[in-house]
Amino acid sequence: MDKLLLGRYIPGHSWIHELDPRTKLMASFYYIGIVFLANNWQTYLMMFVATLFMIWLSGIRIGFFLRGVRPLIWLILFTVALQVLFVRGGTVYWHWGWLWITKLGLINGAFIFVRFVLIIFMSTLLTLTTQPLSLADAVESLLKPLRVIRVPVTELALVLQIALRFVPTLMDQTTKIMNAQRARGVDFGEGNIFQQMKAVVPLLIPLFVSSFTTADELATAMEARGYQGGDDRTKYRILRYHQRDWIAAGGMAVLTGLLLLLQAY
User: Which of these, 41, 71, 185, 187, has the minimum number of CB atoms within 10 Å of its CB?
Assistant: First the structure.
């Protein structure tokens, strides 16, 4: 559970840390979108180099990003295996029944793997360099135009803020419960898949109870302090764009231009 980095923030004063959270959020979604435009090894290499450059600017060790990949490695390998075994084209290296390993399948599998890693790296960069409260403020600010059609933007931002804030708390509670169950003789890693699923039950029940207790305590605390969302509520953190945000936007534009240029090769 300690390997899951969602919702965790590493304090710092790097160039990436100092960006406006709205800039980082929009840039992350934009980056994830243009990753799918890469179609050859030149474009993927350029995207990988750009990602490493952004990680260097953040001042965070690459090990944190590799830890972000580990929890999803089996999903990534499963997706890659589907590409390798079911995509046909080019030279056939192996064939058995309806399973094929071809040149095109291997290339697509490699591209899918790199694409997954790039998306995870960018998502991890966003969460590690942006406080959950700032991220929720950014979402609320970007969704403000939807208030015209009566979308509860403030409530949606509050839900996101609470969810991001309590992901690390739930992970810590899960670790404590697992350690307590192990001390009582529960083994989460042995036996077949059904035995492992059965061993998870003593973990889920106390986790659900703890989650509902935490939610009830949070609701009581907010009510006791007179919390009330809406347009009349003032902000402690005022979001403002600075020169570095425009530089980051320009960098994304340059990256897009290079990507489109290299697509032809």
Answer: 185
